[in-house]
Amino acid sequence: MPQTTFPLHDRTVGEIAARLPGASGVFRRFGIDFCCHGEVPLAEAANRRQLDLGALEAVLGDLDPLAIPDAPRETGALIDHIQTRYHQAHRRQIPELIALSRKVEAVHAGHPEVPGGLADLLQRIWGELEVHMKKEELILFPAMRRQAADRIAVPIAEMRHDHDDHGAFLAELARLTQDHTVPEGACRTWQALYAGTAQLRADLMEHIHLENNVLFPRFEKGA
After folding, report:
1. Per residue in 3-32, pLDDT tens?
2. Exposure string (b/e) for 24-51, b if CB count within 10 Å is 16 or more?
3. Do 94 and 167 reside in the same domain of the chain?
4. Residue 77 in 3-state DSSP?
5. In-domain check, residue 67
6. Distance from C-alpha of 49 to C-alpha of 1, rounded to nearest angstrom
7. How far apart are CA 204 and CA 90, in angstroms?
8. Per residue in 121-132, is it b (16+ CB within 10 Å) or e — as a string?
9. Which residues form the Hemerythrin-like domain (predicted)?
């Protein structure tokens, strides 16, 4: 298998995730924020998580840089991918998770590990994310397809700001669910809820990464 040839320790985690197929999955496994804080160098990210940099580099180095990319490279195809794979998925996921959460919070109100406030958090995520996605679909993405780079600096900055808010929501989601850890003996509804919140977290991280680290820089640099 071809191995990664470019040095990693002085690269940012966002750049590595954008260039190296499979890197985003490694970063999720090690708890490294590659989407909202992709500007952090790998060495610093490892230090923040108290990880062995050499071991992390070894795992990344075993990835195949010639593997099929995680998402299309061409701009129009990438936008299509973001909309079909992530926008549509979020619209299916979150309302279902809100309903599951309200049921778990009501039925297990006396349980010491019940995720109190989770439904309200998911409702906030849903409200803000839907507005965010509509702004992309109606304003930003069409301008990108037209290559109207002179008109999108402000919308991109707004989207990045929204992403920071979404990252804070994800951190709270992980806290309320104890990193999506189902209590012993939890019912199937609770199990389904935490499986769904874990998938939402993974999907939203990948969604933000593709925009912050792959799509947006093409226009911010005047590409």
Report:
1. 555 578 789 999 999 999 999 999 999 999
2. bebbbebebbbbbbbebbbebbbeeeee
3. yes
4. helix
5. no
6. 29
7. 8
8. bbbebbeebeeb
9. 80-218
